[in-house]
């Protein structure tokens, strides 16, 4: 699963939903100094954690 970015300074991002988790595949061209899959992944994780906390609080 996964695919590459469609523009030189962009990202490729695919996901696969499972009942208890999500698998992500992130990619970017190594030659582009403006992109970072590591930073993108960290921000994605933080955003999902924040959404999960919001939904968990609402479910209580």
UniProtKB/TrEMBL annotation:
Entry EC number(s): 2.3.1.6
RNA-binding in keyword set: no
Top-level enzyme category: transferase
GO BP field: acetylcholine biosynthetic process; neuromuscular synaptic transmission
Any single Gene Ontology cellular-component annotation: neuron projection
A family per Pfam: Carn_acyltransf
Keywords, comma-separated and alphabetical: Neurotransmitter biosynthesis, Transferase
InterPro entries (UniProt xref): Carn_acyl_trans (IPR000542), CAT-like_dom_sf (IPR023213), Cho/carn_acyl_trans (IPR039551)
GO molecular function, one term: choline O-acetyltransferase activity
Domain Choline/carnitine acyltransferase: 1-46
Family stated for the protein in its record: Belongs to the carnitine/choline acetyltransferase family.
Protein name: Choline O-acetyltransferase
């Amino acid at each position: 699963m996964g695919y590459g970015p469609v523009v030189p300074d962009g990202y490729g991002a695919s996901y696969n939903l499972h009942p208890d988790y999500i698998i992500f595949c992130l990619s970017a061209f190594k030659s582009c100094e403006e992109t970072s899959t590591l930073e993108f992944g960290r921000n994605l994780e933080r955003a999902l954690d924040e959404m999960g906390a919001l939904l968990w609080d609402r479910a209580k």
